[in-house]
Amino acid sequence: MTATATEPPKPRRMGQRILGSGLLDLLAGPPGVDGYLEQIRPAWGVQDRRAEVIAADRRTPDAVTLALRANLAWEGFESGQFVQVAVEIDGSRRTRSYSLASAAGPGRTLELTVKAHPEGLVSNFLVENARPGMVLGLGPAEGDFRIPLERPERLLLISAGSGITPVMSMLRTLCAEDHNGSITFLHYAPDPGRAIYRDELEQIAAVHPNVRLVRSYTRAPGAGEADGHFSRSQLAEIDPGYAAAETFACGPPALLDALREAWGAEDLELRLHLESFVSSTLAPASGVPEGSIHFANSGVRIENSGAVLLEQAESAGLSPASGCRMGICHTCCCRKTAGTVRNLSTGQLSSNDAEEIQICISAPVGDVVVDL
Ligand code: FES
Question: Which pTM was predicted?
């Protein structure tokens, strides 16, 4: 039911409004309401979004699935969206974006899965250290990758690796709503041992006859319902009616490029909705990284490691502004004044001397100078 102007405020919302009001903050004095609540329990703030870890489940060797309880400042999300998660590491606040995997709804219990990778400062920290009681900062839910409120009759959900989290949220949301349209869930993982949510997906498919589960284990042929990487012929076998479906896919750039090509070849782009995650450790296409990076405003010069400029700047002790770290929010834009960078999202090289670049998805190719 939707609240109307004549309805009395619900008790929890009213309490939230009172606790979150500027007037009470004024009366509370310099620490503010959040300051006092924090001293009782860090997750209890009502003005800054925070969440307490209530479970940390390590289902695969290189990932942790976190169950979180958000505080009263959390406004909710739509399935498929992501949030920025903040943690303090060695005295510095670090933020990274993670897609939520839980079913969307009014509740404050959230789930996200974090996968370790060689230079993933925050990811590795959470995979190693997250435990019940830890408090994380949260941003608001963001992103346009979400299923329409008028649910499509036919859906194809495609993911690879940890790209499964936003489409898992979509699947859980649809199942919680008893959506009875046809859903094909196609997931790529190296082998069954590294397939996040494997057991739950099987349980969902067992009790929801409208959900068809297809796994392709790229390094374990024969272990899933399909084999190998995505191709148009594989798609035609798995879901011959895919052209009639709304398709939502999340995965690395190579998978998304292949999907764009397949849907583009049949003028079906409007039915394809994509979310990319970019590994910040991708090396430039030429292989061994070369050249040096000059952060002109700071007077810092370093050897190019091949990682994206944002990671390299942070490794050099700088703290550039950043948000989503995957090319969506534009918080990290800064001016490059010389050199060539590769956009890891599109693969394109850019050599203009004075241009704005997103340093979270731009890897230097040779010598580069940026205004940082
Ligand atoms: S941090 Fe969001 S686009 Fe770079």
Answer: 0.72
